[in-house]
Design brief:
By secondary structure, this protein is of the alpha+beta class. Helix content is 32%, strand content 14%. It has two domains: 63 residues, no CATH class; 70 residues, no CATH class. The strands form two sheets. Strands 3-4-5 form a three-stranded antiparallel β-sheet, with no helix packed on it. Helix 2 runs antiparallel to helix 3.
Length: 154
């Protein structure tokens, strides 16, 4: 298969790129054929090819080094996301405060609620501790001296 497209980069103008993508197929155990793209850069089989902003060619996620957003999160963001997920599982309609979890929904069994509540409590405690550590690092960071130019204008 050949893909012909224009670049989206304003610096180079309308550059037309020709990409040749090879299609491969395998036979699954349940029969039939499964089609794959072969990444022109890594030569690996892949189900999707990507053209990120600033990219010229359609390549696999591994070739561009793309990852999921959760793979680039720090520990506090990860704990925050986990607390939000547990809040939703406990029946919260939106983001609730960390001071109090949502009340037990009618449809949820008491044992299930208590188990999720314990997890929520643990995650919130860890997130609070992580937030405190981050704040302490920021507050203890020495001030960066500002260099003031003493040259006089003519």
């Amino acid at each position: 298969m050949e893909l012909i497209h224009k670049t989206r980069d304003d610096r180079e103008g309308d550059l037309i790129v020709h990409d040749r993508i090879r299609l491969l197929w395998t036979v699954p155990t349940f029969g039939g054929r499964r089609w794959w793209f072969q990444c022109p850069r890594t030569w690996q089989k892949t189900t999707k090819l990507y053209l990120p902003n600033g990219g010229r060619h359609f390549w696999s996620r591994q070739a561009y080094g793309l990852g999921y957003a959760c793979q680039r999160e720090d520990s506090f963001s990860r704990l925050q996301r986990r607390a939000a997920m547990l809040n939703r599982q406990l029946g919260a309609k939106g983001w609730a405060t960390w001071e109090s979890p949502p009340p037990k929904p009618k449809w949820m069994r008491r044992w299930t609620y208590e188990k999720k509540y314990e997890r929520w409590e643990h995650v919130v405690e860890r997130a609070d501790a992580e937030f405190t550590l981050k704040a302490m690092r920021i507050l203890r960071r020495p001030a960066v001296p500002i260099r003031i130019s003493r040259s006089r204008r003519p």
